[in-house]
Amino acid sequence: MFHMNVYNYYLRLFQSFILPPQSCPVIFPSSPNLADIGETGATGATGETGATGTAGVTGATGPAGIGSTKSILFGGSNAGFQRIAGSPGADSQVIPYVTTASGNVVGFSCSISINNLAIGNYVFQVCGDVPLNLSAPSSSQILSTISLVTTASITGTIAFSIRPTDIGPQPVKVFNPNPIVAPATVTWTSSISGNAFARNTALSLYAIPNITQVAVYSVSISSNI
Predict the structure, then answer these.
(1) Digit-coded pLDDT (tens) for 145-187
(2) How many Å apart are CA 149 and CA 120, to the nearest integer?
């Protein structure tokens, strides 16, 4: 009995040093309340731009250009083949314009100074490779036909232009002295698809019937040169 009391005495003494009193609860740290966290601060300034990267690979070469458009000028002549401006005297079936590349006839324009041009149908034909001994082109040599139709007598300077893409008859102007709409129309007929020609084609201009020598005609062609 004595030994038991001694044991209990030392046990309580030991517990008094090791265990906290029951009236003193153990407090453990707790997680912070999210509601107590402050707002996010402002974004900082953007940093400096980095060094430029190396150049990329060169791209493929683009397609070739579509070419250019140029005009051939013809001076007025009597009925028949007209004369290229600057020609030494021969008409265009004798000294034609020779193309340096394949292409297309894309336009026609003219200015004509005339007194009392009669009512009628005046035809201009762009031709290719007309033999020297012909006084008129054959149907196989005609690329394009332009028809000027007048419905009343005209005095003054007639001016018009036309392209193969124009649909139907196109208006004509006359200056006398100021420009007004003339009693005339002009149309385009393609004898060869696309009004096309090959390289080294000898182009000439044929007109029928005679209008006047006081005129300038322009044939526009487009080619890849």
Answers:
(1) 999 999 999 999 999 999 999 999 999 999 999 999 999 999 9
(2) 6
**Model pLDDT for residues 80-109, shown as the tens digit of each residue:** 999 999 888 789 989 999 999 999 999 999
Pairing label, strands 120-128, 103-117: unpaired
Q: What is the rounded distance in angstroms from the CA atom of residue 9 to the CA atom of residue 155? A: 148
Indicate the pTM of the whole model.
0.70
Q: What are the helix (H) ranges across the chain?
A: 2-18
Q: How far apart are CA 84 and CA 77, in angstroms?
A: 10
**What amino acid occupies position 18?**
I
- HSE of 124 in the Cβ direction (CA atoms, 13 Å)? 26
Angle at the Cα of 183 (from 181 to 184), degrees rounded to 5?
A: 95
Give CB contacts under 8 A, 24+ apart, made by 76-80.
76/112, 76/211, 76/212, 76/213, 76/214, 76/215, 76/216, 76/217, 77/207, 77/213, 78/210, 78/213, 79/207, 79/208, 79/209, 79/210, 80/135, 80/136, 80/206, 80/207, 80/208
Q: Tell me how far apart the alpha carbons of residues 108 and 185 are, in angstroms, rounded to a whole number.
A: 14
